[in-house]
């Protein structure tokens, strides 16, 4: 099992990302702030776990990425969702998708999405509670897009408004 934790020292910070006093996380303004982690070398995921701490009061008018490796094939993301304002979406192209749980209440929440590559089973957890599960595709996940925190979609970006901390991706 490998962990892909993106350290700020190896990423490109874009916009005016700040560390909130006594918050211990990155603050994103929802306009143009994001972290670009590049394309992780040798990344091909069968099993996948994405997790982070999130704090927001935003009611987004479009998807806002917490963590995204978004392309047009074999992508995956953990998003703040706009259809059901304030909920979380986990999934991607060929994976399937699931949503649930409201997190835009201004307090910190621990969010995790998991995928079992052999069965395609997806699970979404918020604060350690299973919110939703479904079955999706089992193809390996790999694309040439950059891994971003706070930005969704490379050609028509949507930016996250809120705070993120302790972001991890495991295979």
Gap between N and C termini: 6 Å
Mean pLDDT: 78
Instruction: State Rg.
Output: 15 Å
- Report the structural category: mainly beta
| Secondary structure: number of strands | 17
Which stretches are poorly predicted, pLDDT < 50 over at least 5 residues?
A: 1-12
Task: Label the overall shape.
Answer: globular
Strand count, sense and closure of the main sheet? 8 strands, antiparallel
Helix content: under 10%
What does this structure look like?
Helices cover 0% and strands 49% of the residues. The protein starts with a strand and ends with a strand. The protein has strands at 3-4, 12-14, 18-19, 26-29, 34-36, 48-55, 64-69, 76-80, 87-92, 96-102, 109-116, 121-126, 129-135, 148-149, 151-152, 158-159, 161-170. Strands 1, 3, 4, 6, 11, 12, 13 and 17 form an 8-stranded antiparallel sheet that branches. The chain has a 7-stranded antiparallel sheet with strand order 2-5-14-7-8-9-10, with no helix packed on it. The protein is globular. The protein contains no helices and 17 strands. Residues 1-12 have low confidence and may be disordered. By secondary structure, it is mainly beta.
What keyword list fits this structure?
171 residues, mainly beta, eight-stranded antiparallel beta sheet, seven-stranded antiparallel beta sheet, 49% strand, globular, disordered N terminus
């Amino acid at each position: 099992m490998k962990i892909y934790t993106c350290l700020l020292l190896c990423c490109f910070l874009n916009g005016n990302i700040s560390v909130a006093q006594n918050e211990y996380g990155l603050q994103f303004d929802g306009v143009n702030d994001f972290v670009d982690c590049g394309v992780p070398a040798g990344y091909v995921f069968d099993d996948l776990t994405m997790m982070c701490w999130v704090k927001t009061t935003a009611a987004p008018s479009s998807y806002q990425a917490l963590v995204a490796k978004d392309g047009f094939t074999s992508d995956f993301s953990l998003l703040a969702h706009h259809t059901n304002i304030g909920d979380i979406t986990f999934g991607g192209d060929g994976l399937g998708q699931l949503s649930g749980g409201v997190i835009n209440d201004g307090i910190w929440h621990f969010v995790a999405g998991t995928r079992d590559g052999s069965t395609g089973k997806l699970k979404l957890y918020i604060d350690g509670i299973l919110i939703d599960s479904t079955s999706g595709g089992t193809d390996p996940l790999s694309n040439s897009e950059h891994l971003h925190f706070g930005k969704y979609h490379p050609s028509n970006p949507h930016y996250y408004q809120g705070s993120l901390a302790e972001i991890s991706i495991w295979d």
